Request: fold
Amino acid sequence: MSPKKFHLGWFVGFVANDFTGPFSPPDEPWDGKFYVEMAQSLERAGFDYMMFEDTVSVPDAYGRSFDTYLKHALWAPKHDPVPLAAVIAAATSRLGIIATMSTAFYPPYMLARTVATVDHIAKGRFGWNIVTSAQNQAALNFGMDKLPPHDKRYDIAHEYIDLVRELWNSWDADNIVRDRETGAYFAPGSVRAVDHDGEYFRSKGPLTTVRPPNGQPVFVQAGGSPKGRDFAAKYADSIVANPGSIEDMRKFRDDVRARAAAHGRNPDEIKILFIMMPVLGATTEEAVAANRRNITSDRAVENILAQFSFTTDIDFSQFPLDEVPPQDLTTDGEQSALEMFLQRGSGKTLRELAIDYLSPRVELVGTPDEVADRMGEIVDEVGGDGFLIYTGSNSLNRRFVAEVTEGLVPALQRRGRVRTEYGHEFLRDNLRAF
Ligand SMILES: Cc1cc2nc3c(=O)[nH]c(=O)nc-3n(C[C@H](O)[C@H](O)[C@H](O)COP(=O)(O)O)c2cc1C
Reply:
């Protein structure tokens, strides 16, 4: 029996890349070239997509100041991924390009129009990572006092999706006739108003843009809560998730697939990619040593504490690194994340907790052949569907991209685990190919 094939994505932001390591790129990334060349490498390796995250605020939770975030270039600077996606689309021909846009901040009409425009430039290879946003600090940048509560954000997002779909559907498919004889550009009656008048949004329509090449762009989503999973199961072509243990991965995938079936969808239409940070070396020892260096450096520890301060709104800079933090910390932010991090009662110091948190339960550390074998085993145990490669922005450089695209991917290809060439032009078709 031939081995089960799986999909590959790469998770990145339009952010500062590695600027301190021995192999840090000499050039600034803000003209987009670094990411365009990276996209070309991913396309050569047959990746399904390159996915750009996005958030829209400069945090100040750690030390109640912007300084630590800006020092490490964490969350900021962060440039808008949508124009970059268009530039990447023009420099590639098969790779999917996903950009994150929030239903909390984009007016639906504007999002529908921008997404349709980029999807045409990409000839059906663009995708929208649908987020509902979780940072009140971002809400302040858009004239709101705070975000709506968690579950309501998803209720709003459901109507949002209905509306943007109505807008894309306000143009019929293949309605451009460009008839030289009659001088007609499009078929009469093939563009209509939508007259949407809902609980949260009103829009008359039609959209100004031609219908997206594939009817609608690829939808990506990352919901973890029951509301989030249900939302993803209803709409997503691909779901990205944090793995936890192999058992957690299997449960998550089974749950989302069951929810998709309950929505009347074929669960195989949804590809679930789990985030993984491979650490590769020419020998096992080299990879293990590199992994240890990655997770124990002062820089990595400060990074993770600053990140945690942001998501929990607890200022971790106030606690000494080599002492046990207070055991009674609580948050109105991400509660499950705080529980996992704190390991209450373990007696571990803050530094030890940070290092534990940086050590994923499912590791991919070794030679390309060893990691390729491990990835195959994981997919067989979980049932599918692939991996979203990631490295912290502080360690993203051309050497790491090459280790994956020139070492790991060929090892996966030799095992028949990933594609050796693209079968289709549209991203959705490539995702559904296996
Ligand atoms: C792989 C991954 C990527 C994500 N990317 C973003 C992002 O770019 N912007 C954002 O605001 N949230 C992002 N999130 C957060 C999710 O959109 C979502 O808020 C989070 O997973 C919590 O989901 P829940 O509210 O359903 O529990 C991401 C989450 C994951 C797991």
About this structure: Residues 11, 53-55, 100, 131, 133-134, 150, 222-225, 227-228, 240-242, 275 surround flavin mononucleotide (CB under 6 Å). The mean pLDDT is 94. The longest helix spans residues 150-168.
